[in-house]
Amino acid sequence: MIPVNEPSLGEKEFEYVNDCLKSGWISSAGKYIEAFEEQWAAYCGMKHGIAVSNGTVALQVAMACFDLAPGDEVIMPTFTIISCGQAITYNGYCPVLVDAEPRTWTMDVSQIERKITKKTKAIMPVHIYGHPCDMDPILDLAKKYNLVVLEDAAETHGAEYKGKKCGGLGDISCFSFYANKIITTGEGGMILANNDDYAKKARSIRNLCFKPGKRFYHTELGNNFRLTNLQAAIGLAQLERIDDLIEKKRWMGKAYTERLKNISGLTLPVEESWAKNVYWMYGIVLDESVGLDAVEFAKRLHAQGVETRPFFLGMHEQPALHAMGLFQNEHYPVSERIAKNGLYLPSGLTLTEDQMDRVVFAVKQIIREIKH
Ligand SMILES: *Cc1c(COP(=O)(O)O)cnc(C)c1O
């Protein structure tokens, strides 16, 4: 079976983790945490880095930093992971959706302005599968309507928008370092901010809102969302290799496109002129003309030894959110179409050219079979 994803772990990762073990600094303080926070923030062009236990809580804590009122509205794409929606609802805010844009699958920025109301306080752009959102229109609207911007850059480590790193464009940004992300710590996440107050608040919530100087006295409630030094040691070692990891992903993206572009019935990832795509996952969308949806296509690929994953299912199609009274009669046709017909192919950092050729062979064969 060709795995859909596999992390790339090198000598440095072993060395740094061993160093932690030998030193006894295996919990959530230590030099690797500090170095990882500082260097990740610097890499993305932000002032503060706050490491947390995963990307989901990074979003939840970042949302809390804005200190909005209950019921305030946050505009987000429907086509994303549930972590984005629940970061808003857990804080008592109200998610408001826009559809995906059909080329990059990121939020359709042309739909944002008409969703802005008196209650709108924030926009949450999510960069998708390695490709950035079109950020300038979002930042312009934020300025015009006095909104804050939370960027979810979990899928775009090192990707660029007009020459600037994703995760360095909004007021706050969030990352995941889950094992399938470009840089991994196993489980892990990070919040980046320029604003000192946001950083202070995020650090406090991450660590149970302990008060400096008055340790067991609490004026607010936080959580234990700490990352360990052991995890940060892996992250730092990965960060030192990030240029190579991104080069590998970009090779993969281009090589897949080269091999698949002449097959009719497939929509492939793009790279807009203003973007540097890092091809976190190589997604394909089947045209209706193919006659199979993604579930059926994935089954046939699986039978040929190729592991895939389906695309996200939009927030407006989530029963858990309907049960909260959200999005009950809303429809977003692009998101619905790509959720039904989209899947991603093996895209790991250890994927070989030979494996890619086998994946492409299987895709071609399945399409040929349906057509006959
Ligand atoms: C992976 C991911 C997350 C969640 O990160 P976890 O570390 O798995 O909790 C959030 N947003 C996006 C866009 C992601 O891809």
Quick summary:
With 372 residues, the chain is of the alpha/beta class. The chain contains twelve helices and 14 strands.
Short descriptors:
seven-stranded mixed beta sheet, 12 helices, 372 residues, 14 strands, Aspartate Aminotransferase, domain 2, Aspartate Aminotransferase, domain 1, alpha/beta, binds pyridoxal-5'-phosphate
Structure description:
With 372 residues, the chain is α/β, with parallel strands linked by helices. The protein folds into two domains: 229 residues, 3-Layer(aba) Sandwich (Aspartate Aminotransferase, domain 2); 130 residues, Alpha-Beta Complex (Aspartate Aminotransferase, domain 1). It contains twelve helices and 14 strands. Strand 2, helix 4 and strand 3 form a beta-alpha-beta unit. Helix 2 packs across helix 7. 49% of the residues are buried. The model has no long low-confidence stretch (mean pLDDT 97). The site of pyridoxal-5'-phosphate has 14 residues, from helix 3 and helix 4.
